[in-house]
């Protein structure tokens, strides 16, 4: 006769969200103990009492909340998926394209909870960091057919319940970007704002120049009252492919071709976006050259491998 387990899958999910990765992995073998074993070891249940776990978690591990915003077609969803290393955002928002969605870092798999715009997901990184993330993904603000998107996003921004606001710029210099930057700078504390200049993978050496684009962007920001802005140039798409190749190894043939092309492109000195060489860690080196590592270190408060770009 098959014996029941004392901890349900739902309880394991809750425990995984509350604990650090090290604590969860240490505890996981105990979560599968059956009733007979538990009766001989009552102290085990006490050790995983959810109230105690929740209190310890709140004391020791706070989420860093990141709100991500952009005009449409800026690569915002790609950036969120690159943080995760998974195609989570597109799947989760197929039926909720106008929703503000929160994605919290978990260690027990990926799933949508109760259809309440809350997702638990692993944020894949080679080195586990102590600072767990919660990403608030907002709708694009310049969709003329859906003006309610602007209202939803601005309401989320004005709540001010985040550590950083990440503004993803896809088309620098456009009137839409300029106007939205002006609104952001007016309503958000400047020390919370991080700008991401995305889609660097689309730049062509004969036509585009990252340095001149950054210089112009900084000039525009100074003109509207925000000097010394923090700007991260990157290819979120390259980072997304790099993480999937490293952790899941599930790229199809077309994606594998793109992965190899982008790696070659960013390894060229004129395209390399890294500030510091990451030695003997190939995966982190690849994230560095496409600009993702510096950004991820910034929002996690990690400076182990590379300093942030200003």
UniProtKB/TrEMBL annotation:
Residue span, G domain: 71-199
GO MF, one annotated term: GTP binding
Gene3D superfamilies membership: P-loop containing nucleotide triphosphate hydrolases
InterPro entries registered for this protein in UniProt: GTP-bd, P-loop_NTPase
Highest taxon in the source lineage: Bacteria
Protein name stated in the entry: G domain-containing protein
């Amino acid at each position: 006769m098959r014996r029941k387990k004392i901890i349900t899958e739902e309880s394991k999910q809750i425990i995984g969200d509350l604990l650090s990765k090290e604590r969860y992995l240490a505890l996981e073998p105990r979560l599968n103990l059956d009733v007979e074993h538990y009766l001989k070891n009552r102290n085990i249940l006490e050790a995983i009492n959810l109230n105690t776990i929740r209190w310890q978690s709140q004391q020791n591990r706070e989420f860093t909340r990141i709100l991500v915003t952009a005009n449409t077609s800026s690569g915002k969803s790609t950036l969120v998926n690159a943080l995760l290393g998974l195609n989570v955002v597109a799947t989760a928002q197929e039926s909720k394209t106008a929703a503000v969605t929160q994605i919290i870092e978990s260690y027990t798999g990926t799933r949508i909870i109760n259809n309440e715009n809350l997702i638990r997901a692993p944020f894949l990184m080679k080195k586990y960091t102590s600072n767990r993330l919660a990403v608030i993904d907002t709708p694009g603000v310049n969709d003329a057919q859906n003006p309610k998107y602007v209202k939803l996003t601005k309401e989320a921004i004005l709540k001010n319940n985040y550590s950083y606001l990440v503004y993803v710029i896809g088309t620098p210099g456009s009137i839409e970007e300029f106007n939205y930057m002006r609104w952001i700078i007016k309503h958000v504390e400047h020390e919370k704002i991080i700008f991401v200049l995305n889609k660097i993978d689309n730049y062509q050496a004969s036509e585009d120049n990252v340095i001149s684009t950054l210089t112009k962007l900084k000039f525009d920001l100074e003109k509207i009252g925000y000097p010394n802005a923090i700007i991260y140039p990157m290819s979120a798409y390259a980072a997304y492919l790099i993480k999937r190749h490293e952790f899941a190894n599930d790229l199809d043939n077309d994606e594998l071709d793109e992965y190899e092309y982008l790696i070659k492109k960013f390894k060229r000195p004129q395209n390399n976006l890294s500030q510091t060489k990451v030695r003997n860690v190939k995966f982190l080196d690849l994230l560095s050259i496409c600009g993702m590592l510096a950004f991820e270190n910034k929002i996690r408060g990690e400076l182990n491998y590379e300093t942030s770009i200003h």
